[in-house]
Amino acid sequence: MADFKVNIWDNQRIYLIDFGRAWAKQHPSRWCPDIDNIGYGDEAYPTENGPKVSARLGQPIVNVRFFRTEISTKARLYAIASDKNQTIRIITPSKGELPATRESTISFRPIKQGRTSIDIHYHWPDGPIIGSLYVEIRRTININIRAHIVSVNGQPHGNDFLGETRPAALTAAQHQERRIRDLIKGTNQVFEPHGLFLNLREIVNTAWPLAIFGPAPYADILMCSLRAMAHSPNRSSTRINLYIVHGPSIPFALTFVAIGPPVAFAIAKGARWPNTPAGKVGSGIFVDSSASPMTGSILAHEFGHNFSLTSLFPHGIGHTVEDTPGSTPCRDDIITRRRLMYPYTTLRNSNNNWRMNVGYGNNMGSMLIQRRVARDVTFEESKRAYNFCLILNNLYAN
Ligand SMILES: [Zn+2]
Q1: If you measure from the C-alpha of residue 300 to the centroid of ligand 1, how many angstroms do you get, rounded to a whole number?
Q2: Is 207 found in the same domain as 79?
Q3: How far, in Å, is the centroid of ligand 1 from the Cα of 63?
Q4: CA–CA dist 248, 200 (Å, integer)
Q5: Distance (Å, whole) CA 120 – CA 391
Q6: Of 121, 138, 155, at which residue does a domain stop?
Q7: Residue 2: inside a domain, yes or no?
Q8: In terms of C-beta density within 10 A (0-12 exposed, 13-18 middle, 19 or more buried), how is residue 215 classed?
Q9: Which end of the chain has fewer CB atoms within 10 angstroms, the N or the C?
Q10: By 3-state DSSP, what share of the chain in percent is helix, strand and coil, each rounded to 5?
Q11: CB of 307 within 8 A of CB of 389?
């Protein structure tokens, strides 16, 4: 009996197999990264035709899901690294032969920086290739973070801090530190497969007087917030400053849960004050500690702004069509809604069910697109974020 039997229509490609994100207890997970299967072409790598994934050196294991979509479970199939285990080593299946099941997990370990593929061979380990998963392994870029627990006008944070109520057994300081570390860990679940690692170097207590926002009335609350970030005591010029601020203590109503203005955005907006010869820049991340939910995915979204993932639109902070009239339209479909930097709306709407129920449990989607397609300029996020972070002056500022 034939191993596969499908109707082939004129000009139609048939994919006998497919790849997807592997299962984890909770998504996002650095062990089970998103597979970019948003189409097949890639203008950055025109010879590649298929799904893509990336990982960083130092990750002990990466899992991906393999599907026999249009081929019998009786067909003998082999998963083989195209460069014979030089860039990655396939751990499962250990001898290459895939199990006789509809779905299975392929696990591999990154070995060296570079680009390779996991090829699926038909019938023999060196038989015809019927599909591939393209894999990029990156050297890790460490990104330094300083977290500020900001008290505004001497006011304390609430017991509800970064989306969780303080357990009775913990002091406020213990609860706050634990939440910050948990959120950074959650953020790294998103970015590690892209070669980026957030290194929380210190947590400091920082006091903001009301005057730090500038004089009342507070007409432009974004500018007032950037002004406070720029003028903050303890601001580091060798870290991304993450300001955790108790929203209700601020002298105006916030219209955001968090913002992540990148350096270039702050400078372009004139959010730079000449307190030093170079001027203090209102870049970094500002999070309302009273906002709930607050997850690693939400924080990762703000880091995505810091990494300039929306810089293709004016000033690098807004999203597209909704925020920027006249900007280039981009894709909106079932995969797009899984994206970390969902291009059609702001984070204000991230509680909407259509964005929440996208395969990450209670988290919003965290996918970064790998491929480049000129018709959608928001693509190639994984490589763009990585290349941006290679230049430290893009991340850190006085
Ligand atoms: Zn955003």
Answers
A1: 10
A2: no
A3: 29
A4: 26
A5: 37
A6: 138
A7: no
A8: exposed
A9: N
A10: 20, 25, 55
A11: yes
CA of 303 to the centre of ligand 1 (A): 9
Residues that place a CB less than 5 A from ion ligand 1: 347
Looking at the domain assignment, is residue 386 inside a domain? yes
SS3 of 263-306: the string is HHHHHHCCCEECCCCCCEECCCEEEECCCCCCCHHHHHHHHHHH
- Residue 104: HSE in the Cβ half-sphere, 13 Å Cα cutoff: 19
In the structure, what pLDDT confidence band is assigned to residue 347 with cuts at 50, 70 and 90? very low
Which letter, b or e, does each residue of 292-317 get, where b requires 16 or more Cβ atoms within 10 Å of its Cβ? ebbbbbbbbbbbbbbbbbbbbbebbb
Distance (Å, rounded) from C-alpha 397 to C-alpha 51?
A: 37
Q: How many Å lie between the centroid of ligand 1 and the Cα of residue 87?
A: 34
Instruction: Show the domain range for 289.
Output: 141-395
Question: Ligand 1 centre and the CA of 297: distance in Å?
Answer: 11
Task: Say whether both 111 and 150 belong to one domain.
Answer: no
> Phi and psi (nearest 5°) for 360?
-120, 25
Give Cα separations from 327 to 318, 319, 343, 377, 379 (angstroms).
Answer: 11, 9, 11, 10, 15
Which amino acid is residue 8, in one-letter code? I
Same domain, 133 and 154: no
User: CATH code at 45?
Assistant: 2.60.40
Strand 52-56 and strand 77-81: the pairing is unpaired
Number of domains, the chain:
2
Distance from Cα 299 to the centre of ligand 1, integer Å: 10
CA–centroid distance, 151 to ligand 1, in Å, is 25
Q: What is the pLDDT of residues 38-72, one digit of tens each?
A: 888 999 999 999 999 999 999 999 999 999 998 99
Q: 252 or 38: which carries more pLDDT confidence? A: 252
Residues 161 and 133 in one domain: no
Q: What is the pTM of this model?
A: 0.92
Q: Which of 109-118, 207-216, 243-252, 310-319 has the lowest mean pLDDT?
A: 310-319
Q: What is the number of alpha carbons within 13 Å of residue 397 lying toward its C-beta?
A: 25
Q: How many CB atoms lie within 10 A of CB 114?
A: 16
Last residue of a domain, one of 108, 138, 168: 138
Whether residue 232 contacts residue 273, with contact meaning beta carbons closer than 8 Å, is answered with no
